Amino acid sequence: MSDDETTEIDDTAGIAAVRLHRDDQPDGYRVLVDRLWPRGVAKSDLGHDDWDRDVAPSDDLRRRFHGGHLTFHNFAQAYEAELRRSDAPQDLLDRFAESGKDLLVLLYAAKDEEENHALVLADHLRELKEDA
């Protein structure tokens, strides 16, 4: 078992953020939520249903966070604000509902499984589902 697999996958409300390099990938409606395609991963090998760049952090926000100019807390607040101004999260939930699958799997390439944009996105999508 790799270190990745020691972190339990949280699938609260039928939404899970999962590092794409994990060996224990859950089934479901699988969507890559990174703005850039991950290095070293062939599109044919990912086994995804969709690639949704519109729900990823803006290029500017992503660069500031990865450049060390923002703490994760500040990044998460700014990203949440971007998500609130966008129709893309609801559009993603609509496509998930149309898929007929029970689990929305948000795939991301970041190495940190505890502080990454997919976790912020998952929380935002759960809130949207609750409010619907």
TrEMBL record:
Protein name according to UniProt: Probable uroporphyrin-III c-methyltransferase
Enzyme class: transferase
EC numbers for this chain: 2.1.1.107
Native source organism of the sequence: Brevibacterium yomogidense
Biological process per Gene Ontology, one example term: methylation
Record keywords, A-Z: Methyltransferase, Transferase
The organism's place on the tree of life at top rank: Bacteria
Pfam families xrefs: DUF488-N3i
UniProt lineage: Bacteria, Bacillati, Actinomycetota, Actinomycetes, Micrococcales
Keyword Electron transport among record annotations: no
PANTHER family: CYTOPLASMIC PROTEIN (PTHR36849:SF1), CYTOPLASMIC PROTEIN-RELATED (PTHR36849)
GO molecular function: uroporphyrin-III C-methyltransferase activity
